[in-house]
Amino acid sequence: MSEFEKNKKSIKFVYLIGADEHNLKRSDFGDDVFIVYQGHHGDNGAEIADVVLPGAAYTEKQGTWVNTEGRAQKGYNAVAPQGEGRTDWRIIRALSEVAGRTLPYDSLEEIRQRLIEIAPHFGHYGSVESSSFLKQALELSETKAPSKSLEVKQKELADYWMTNSISRASPTMAECVKAARRYKENPHKEPLRLTTA
């Protein structure tokens, strides 16, 4: 049992940042927990929150992402955040000011500079960083067998087209799920016609 599992009834404050890929319920926590959700599309995290701080989707904000090769990449917003939505760093910066512990960043560029100070590879956009873990992994593999099973628990991802808050909010993707399930039940049946709003 994890430390979280052991102590979650005593947790008083939970801050979920775009955390929608979970099975948490309010009843998992004590009666006096206060939950804040910061994110977009009002998915699982928003449903259990006391306060929702509307964030921006990845298409609505600039950011730095690391792909599966380890390449740092800059992302640019395609559209402005919807409604009252704000970019994540601006929400956190505003909260720091309200809390009386103002963060020393007034722009995304200042945040990126600090990120580069902490982890220089974030400033090498588009280049692959060499891995430094191979030697450690080899040494570790020779010392002892893993303490837990390395068997992959989830070998199949059903409904993969509904795996994030954006696709779950999409009427088109919901139609695709219906069509896929109907096909799985009977592949010879007349295909479901997709309707769009």
UniProtKB/TrEMBL annotation:
Coiled-coil ranges per UniProt: none
Start and end residues of each Molybdopterin oxidoreductase domain: 6-98
Domain of life assignment: Eukaryota
GO cellular component terms given for this protein: membrane
Cofactor: [2Fe-2S] cluster; [4Fe-4S] cluster
SUPFAM superfamilies assigned to the protein according to its UniProt record, in alphabetical order: Formate dehydrogenase/DMSO reductase, domains 1-3 (SSF53706)
A molecular function (GO) term: iron-sulfur cluster binding
Occurrences of domain NADH-ubiquinone oxidoreductase 75 kDa subunit mitochondrial-like (ranges): 128-176
PANTHER family in the cross-refs: NADH-UBIQUINONE OXIDOREDUCTASE 75 KDA SUBUNIT, MITOCHONDRIAL, RESPIRATORY NITRATE REDUCTASE
Name under which the protein is recorded: Uncharacterized protein
Organism: Panagrolaimus davidi
